[in-house]
């Protein structure tokens, strides 16, 4: 992983601020932005038992990404019925939309907040064999911790606007460190491909089959 002072600062700040996470989540519950029955999932505490066997983790943030995940989850289950698919999202609405649409063998959890202990607890419990991120969900602690644990990562349907790219250019080392953690990147369009190339991602492929076959499950 590439050295990045900005990434180190981010990790230190999130570690220092993590004790405030429960209070901030409680405030979000009061505003209807978190599910009160499942808010502990945001701290990395599981809401259900992990099934035995291999597990593929697919992460998106909101409703649009959640819906785009379903065909991929269905295909994985069709090709590999022995594999559990864990879908994580970050919004109450996305969880509600998925509740009645998840195929058999696909489970949902809320993604942990991007704080070191919450991320570690999440990964310790679920032990994913592969991580697939949808569009532009680049949370530094989540990505770097998964990388350090040897979880193969892919970024699919990657989308990055010019405004977002300009923001990442202010911390090029951090962007490069995160993007180089993906073994496969599939952009949505040529503009996104060009911006991602400028940020310095690793290998790219035009064959989504590689995502499904990347690990030895």
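^ structure tokens above, recovered residues below v
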């Amino acid at each position: 992983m590439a050295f990045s002072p900005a990434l180190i600062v981010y990790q230190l700040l999130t570690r220092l601020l993590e004790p405030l996470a429960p209070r901030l989540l409680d405030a979000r519950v009061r505003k209807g932005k978190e599910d009160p029955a499942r808010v502990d999932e945001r701290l990395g505490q599981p809401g259900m038992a992990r099934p035995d066997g291999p597990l593929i983790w697919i992460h998106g943030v909101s409703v649009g990404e959640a819906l785009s995940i379903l065909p991929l989850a269905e295909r994985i289950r069709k090709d590999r019925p022995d594999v559990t698919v864990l879908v994580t999202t970050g919004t109450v609405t996305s969880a509600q939309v998925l509740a009645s649409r998840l195929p058999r063998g696909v489970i949902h959890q809320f993604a942990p907040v991007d704080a070191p202990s919450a991320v570690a607890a999440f990964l310790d419990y679920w032990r994913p064999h592969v991580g697939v991120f949808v569009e532009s969900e680049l949370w530094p602690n989540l990505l770097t911790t998964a990388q350090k644990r040897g979880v193969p990562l892919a970024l699919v349907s990657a989308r990055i606007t010019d405004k977002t790219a300009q923001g990442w250019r202010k911390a090029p080392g951090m962007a490069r460190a995160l993007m180089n953690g993906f073994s496969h990147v599939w952009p949505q369009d040529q503009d996104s491909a060009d911006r991602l190339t400028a940020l310095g991602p690793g290998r790219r492929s035009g064959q989504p089959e590689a995502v499904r076959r990347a690990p030895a499950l």
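Residues 50 and 126 are 6 Å apart (CA to CA).
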